[in-house]
Write a structure and sequence with these properties.
InterPro entries: FAD-dep_OxRdtase (IPR006076), FAD/NAD-bd_sf (IPR036188). It comes from Halocynthiibacter styelae. This is FAD-binding oxidoreductase. With 450 residues, the chain is an alpha/beta fold. The chain folds into two domains: 245 residues, FAD/NAD(P)-binding domain; 174 residues, D-Amino Acid Oxidase, subunit A, domain 2 (D-Amino Acid Oxidase, Chain A, domain 2). Helix content is 29%, strand content 23%. It has nine helices and 17 strands. The strands form two sheets. Strands 3, 4, 5, 6, 11, 12, 13, 14 and 15 form a nine-stranded mixed beta sheet that branches. Strands 1, 2, 7, 8, 9, 10, 16 and 17 form an eight-stranded mixed beta sheet that branches. Helix 2 runs parallel beside helix 6, helix 2 packs parallel to helix 8 and helix 3 packs across helix 8.
Length: 450
Amino acid sequence: MRENQMRGDKKHVRLRKIGEADMTTEGYADTFYTRTLADEAGFPQLKGTVEADVCIVGGGIAGISTAWELTQRGLSVVVLEKNRIAFGASGRNGGILSAGFAGPDSALFRAGKKAGKALYALSQEGVRAVIDNTRDLDLKGVDPVPGRISASRYPDARGMQESVQHARDTFAHMKEYLPKDELRKYIKTNRFYDGYYDPDSWHIHPLNYCKGLAERIVENQGQVFENSAMISFDHTGAEKILRCEKGVVKAKYIVLCGSGYSGPEFGRLQKSLLPIATYVISTEGLGDRLDGLMNTKCAVADTRLSCDYFRVTPQGELLWGGGMSGLAKSPPNLDQRMKNRILEVFPKLSDVKIGISWTGLMGYSRHKMPYVRELSPGIWTATALGGHGLNTGPAIGRVVAEAIAEKGTRYQLFEPFGLRWNGSIFGPLAADAICAASNLSHRIRERFTG
């Protein structure tokens, strides 16, 4: 075990005051990430007519990653974002960067064993891309911290050991099983039992990553526009024409990357995305109180479908996410609801103060795999990251860039995962029913085996 990654030190960064917001973050939801931006400069609104080889619609991590990969292959790009860069889930998630996709690993083998392994390897490639870009491009404030612990809320030694063995034997992904006594050295709670440690996962500041990469795109002659919603596009000719309120883009290719916040302008793609809400809070700085609760800098997540995931920020705050819903986009009393989740794990924090809470919409497909395909000649999509976007966005962005610039074929790995109708009004109901059933199953196991 890498002790320098697992154990935290006793240094705590001086915290900014809660409520200390900056007007330069106008247009963003107020989150921990907007309050800790490394660079608050924005990007202009599209005005007039511009031309490029590729126009990317959606400035989240998939869109920004695709644009970056295309610039590295010598193509000119335009990015259209209707709000702010990484306005949605890409800039307000839990910050955990790890291999895999939103769905279970078993789904990867739909196209066979070889394709399943290649898909997982691609997800690992996405992790490395983020870390490499952060280092090589000197992206400020991303602050990657290595290591993630997965923990079960009921005794599950066999299940955890099998998961570790499966990752090693099938994907050459080396993880380390943590029995209860070992796990509780790092996370001081009676709520968790068995777990495993993944040294190849990280946690980062996702908004600083996306904004920093967008700035590098501009430095490489790309064009990035905020507050520039696509109203319509004409894809019937060799030259595609996209219209915004105050401007027009002419391009040879279009890549649609809108996700949970997509509108009807995305056509049948929007009807194939299921917006699912998740919830995150950040506490006030906890100082030395954390030393008795978390003796690790790793991110932590439990094994439930609607799991809790948490980490200590470089500023010494506890950032905690959990829960998901297709219906309750912004539930009342969010602070207290999320604090109750903290207290289930750390009852000693009964007096902890919540600094800020927020919600975000993730874009899911029904099969929980991304949509990566050419919808019609010259029209590509890279979306449906399903709450696992920090590695998936860079991975599929690279695949689409390869296909456009180099006639690459790795996009064919996603052929078994085509567009599927989201179920309209019944989709959110079904999603919530699945979550409720999963949570009930876990509660029963916790009660009778814990």
